[in-house]
Amino acid sequence: MKTLFYVTYRGFINRLKKALKRPVTYLFIAVAVAYVALLAVGLFNIVKNTHFNNVKALVIVITVLLFFALPSSYLMYARRKGIIFKPSHAHFIFNAPISPKQVLIYGALKNILMDAVFGVLILLGGILLFDVPLWKMILVFLFWVFMTSLQEGGIVILLYGNEKVSVEKMGKASKIMLGVLAVLGIFLFWYIKTYGFSLASVGALIDYPGLQMLPLVGWNVAVFRLILLGPTTLNVICSILYVVSTAAILAAAWKLPCYGGYYEEAAKFADDYQAMKNRNKKGETGNGKEKYRRIKGGVKGCGAKAIFYRQLLEYKKARFFIFGSMNLVCFFIAFVMAWTYDGASKYAGMFLLGILAYVIFCTSGYVGKWEKELQNPYLYLIPEKPIKKLWYATQMEHIKSFIDGSIMCVGIGVAWHLPVWQIVTSILLYVLFQAIKMYMRIFALYILGDNFGLQVRKLFQMLIQSSLMGVGIALAVVVGMVINMNLVFPILLIYSIIITVTVMFLASYRFEVLEQIE
Q: Which sequence ranges are marked TM in the entry (predicted)?
């Protein structure tokens, strides 16, 4: 085990030294510190203003975290995809004279370290935000870090290293766990629909006794309730069950014979994960194993239109055409917001714009096939203007963003009874802001090239993009507050059109010269 810890420690030190030699690292650190400081101040104000600064609130936060984190972790372990090994591990560590169980613990070390990080955040949050006594938070921290980590390590060995259970049976077990999660999700939607989404309704759900009776996860919650809220008959019994079950899991994991039967699957997953990382660095999507349909006929296009029609032909061969996971995300957002809020406020339109802005900020943007076009030499031989090539190369991404924007804006707008013109304007704003994000990515690639790396280009893109969008949003809000809030939509629309056209013109130079690739 000392060898594995040395490999981890040495690898971390080498990566740290390499990072500190790059000036951009310090810029990232400054941005991260500023973001964390702003987030901390914002959370502090929200907690104080909503009177959420009490022990019961901390219990709600911990319960939500546990029910979101633990079941998904168990599911991934059952599918043998919860631990990320690298291809180098398959060549060196798997072949080393080290116990397969120790290799599993080494692989799960990142997950255990994340538990420790969350434990520190909960410790600081409980003391600074929720006014919990220090001795209670120390107990919470120790239990979160040590007991939860011990149980997770035992579960990793039982699910990953269990060679007595066949892959087929383990797959059925993971499907059963997925079904249980689906049932819990349906119950949660029903509860929110029936009782509404408020602190009172969430608190009532958290206090439901049956929640603590659920094996492992519920028993874990009971221990934190025992520490923070005091003993009751139910949480004492469930806490004892949790300690006994953890001891049983550790004993079973200790006695379980494990000879490295999972190595083959782990090595295959390591190769797939590395291939996925390489595709992400290139801006590609999917898992590299997409199935294509056979289609009859074809499409025709002259000049720059040929770029669009070639992409259309590729999408027609795809299994789901232009539709993907982002459509499901947008539908989920629309469904949740439509059921949890009635749009009674006069600022409901502003709330919709805020939701769209959050989605645009959190998602990576529409990459699609335009970046692949830059690698094709024939693109630069087409006798068309660069801006025309850019337009047809990104046209399909605008269509996809229009579909996603329509799903969210129509679903939320109809449920909130917003005016039709606000819904239509919101869709156009979503398309325009996504276009700005995409064109800024192309512009960053044109200005910086490939020499500065993907992360530097993303930072450059984020700074300029945030500045441009922030100016427009601030201008629209000021005019709306001074004159009329209905002016926010047209001002944002006009501003977005101007910025989109400008950034598009600047980004079009990337489609002009082939040598810019190097």
A: 24-46, 58-77, 112-132, 138-161, 173-192, 320-341, 347-367, 402-421, 427-448, 460-483, 489-509
Asked if 516 and 446 count as a contact pair (C-beta separation under 8 A), the reply is: yes
Q: What is the 3-state secondary structure (H, E, C) of 304-373?
A: CHHHHHHHHHHHHHECCCCCCHHHHHHHHHHHHHHHHCCCCCCCHHHHHHHHHHHHHHHCCCCCCCHHHH
Q: What is the DSSP string of 408-455?
A: HHHHHHHHTT--HHHHHHHHHHHHHHHHHHHHHHHHHHHHHTTTTHHH
Surface-to-core class of residue 388, CB atoms within 10 Å of its CB (0-12 exposed, 13-18 middle, 19+ buried): middle
pLDDT single digits (tens) 113-141 = 888 888 888 888 888 888 888 899 899 89
Identify the DSSP state of 21: T
Q: Read off the tokens for 167.
A: 């892959």
Q: Determine which helix (DSSP H) or strand (DSSP E) holds 131, and give its type and residue range.
A: none
- Maximum CA pair distance of the chain? 80
Question: Residues 6 or more apart from 11 whose CB is under 8 A from it?
Answer: none
Residue type for position 207: D
Tens of pLDDT, residue by residue over 303-349, are 777 777 777 777 777 776 777 778 888 888 888 888 777 777 777 88
Q: Which residue has the tokens 């025309």?
A: 388
Is residue 404 within 8 A of residue 327, CB to CB? The reply is yes
